[in-house]
Design brief:
Two copies of one chain form a homodimer. In chain A, helix 4 (about 90-100) crosses helix 5 (about 105-120) and helix 6 (about 125-135) crosses helix 8. The first copy, chain A, has helices at about 15-25, 55-70, 80-85, 90-100, 105-120, 125-135, 155-165, 175-185, 225-235, 250-255, 280-290, 300; strands spanning about 40-45, 170-175, 195-205, 210-220, 240-245, 260-270, 275, 295. Chain A is about 40% helix and about 15% strand. By secondary structure, chain A is α/β, with parallel strands linked by helices. The first copy, chain A, contains twelve helices and eight strands. The longest helix of chain A has 16 residues, at about 55-70. The interface between A and B is medium-sized, with 30 and 30 residues.
């Protein structure tokens, strides 16, 4: 099939074969055929479509904003999460998500409080523009790249390959929907209506005719909430789902239903080209082993990791 | 433009001219050009795409279910909304929405309580199948038609006409999203991911791998909530918006922004072929008059109302 040429950054391994065989089965005339309307593919973002270490890119964006707030208001400098942001205490911040996946949400609660105050009153357009500028121009702290350049080239190819086979592709991320929307079309070729994620509460200001953020959370799109958000937006199940952490387990479990499913779990095992960690993914990796989910090894399955690399 | 032929049930009036002229402007090369990605059209459902009298079709569906519940449980027969459902007290039921638009939500609260209990525990698939069967087979109480046949032929033509001009069309209804999804592709040619509406809370049952309704409301997608729901789903503003009641004012206000907008307000003024009422639309009609929104008169602007009629 000509569309396989789209997967040029995938090494010829059993993983690539599993992907190509699955697509051949569901697009073929056999009993596993899935009609194009039901060919839905959903992908987590952080750690699945782009790099999430040493800290998620959205967290770096929030950090910058919180540090600016602490700079302007002395009283915030001794209060979390502004303290960590101002002191560039990456350990506190990267520990928040690790603790979350271990069942301790105290850090998430503190961080969320800061985030809500950081962006309350902004319009959705202002926020999107700020996020876009940050991702396109900001530099990753350790990789020699903009944040935009930290998307995984093989995953971008996989999106195009699936679309060439009449799949409709979506992001379904625990990250903030509106943070991703502006850059998703630029980086991943995904239009805003195909970005699903967490949200803060919004208010329509009828007189000024604009939508602004309230200092209230709305939905944290992770774990068992992912299938609900996908179903609410799409009106169907994914048949292909890709993730990398324990927060993706329910989405991967939800894939397929009565239809054949392809479940991909990205394994970060390449310290030289990206990062090497399984923290926050232990349960997902166990499920992959027992249930036959397809583990994608960055080390072995990808000949190239980032668009700018060889 | 050849696509105008799609509007065959529209009489050659100033309304039709306003629609065709608007589309020519935004698709043309002039200063009002709108790029295809920004050509978003959102339509209310009840009273805009299909008939809502003597009571909304979803309410008839709920009524049937509530009556069945009262039949099975004697204690419900004296309690609203089961009492009204069992006694076929249409006046109580149709008054609920009228009171809502007048600012009195006591009826909505009572009705919602019943609805939540009526469907709690059902899976989303069971509910969609029941709704589909009801709409396709159920008979409208006064029009000689199935409920499915109560869609407005000129509005179906308008959807196709807009799509032929690279608009992406959506339903944005105060009605229940999941009630409409199953029938939207059949009746309106709109896939499930382009149906926006009210929702009840959902839960993902991981072990059984299914999504079920909780006895909790989630979002009532009406009035100032409509712009938020549209923006959350689409990631942009509509440039074309169509409604028929006070609950559509904010959506119509939200249309356009910096882009040229077409705002359509359906006026029910044809007692012979459909219904004649302005109840619940008084403020919207005033806004149309002062702000130059395009009022669509069923009597004067449509040569045919329903697909099955002449």
């Amino acid at each position: 099939m000509a569309s396989e040429e789209l997967l040029s950054s995938w090494t010829d391994t059993a993983t690539r074969t599993a992907i190509v065989d699955y697509v051949a089965r569901v697009t073929g005339d056999g009993p596993d055929h899935v009609v194009p309307e039901e060919r839905i593919a959903t992908f987590d973002n952080d750690g699945t479509l782009w790099c999430e270490k040493p800290l998620p890119i959205q967290l770096a964006f929030i950090l910058k904003r919180l540090a600016e707030m602490a700079e302007a208001d002395q009283s915030l400098k001794s209060k979390q999460p502004w303290k960590a942001a101002f002191e560039r205490d990456y350990a506190w911040l990267s520990g928040v998500m690790t603790k979350h996946y271990e069942g301790d949400d105290s850090g998430v609660t503190s961080l969320m409080g800061g985030i809500l105050q950081a962006f309350a009153g902004q319009t959705v357009d202002e926020y999107e523009q700020a996020a876009y500028a940050f991702v396109m121009n900001g530099r990753h702290p350790t990789l020699d790249s903009t944040f935009a350049g930290c998307a995984y080239q093989p995953m971008i190819e996989l999106l195009r390959y699936l679309e060439a086979n009449d799949f409709t592709t979506y992001i379904a991320s625990g990250g903030d929907r509106d943070f991703m929307r502006g850059i998703a079309s630029e980086i991943y070729g995904l239009p805003p209506e195909r970005v699903i994620g967490s949200t803060n509460a919004l208010r329509y200001d009828e007189e000024a005719d604009r939508i602004v953020y309230l200092a209230e959370p709305d939905v944290f799109d992770d774990g068992p909430v992912k299938p609900l958000r996908i179903w609410s937006r799409v009106g169907g199940r994914p048949t292909v789902a890709g993730g990398n952490s324990n927060g993706d387990i329910q989405m991967l479990n939800f894939a397929g239903g009565a239809m054949p499913a392809l479940r991909l779990l990205i394994l970060h095992d390449d310290a030289d080209r990206e990062f090497d960690y399984t923290s926050g993914a232990e349960t997902a990796l166990q499920r992959a082993a027992t249930d036959g989910w397809t583990v994608v090894s960055i080390l072995n399955d990808w000949s190239r990791v980032f668009p700018g690399s060889q």
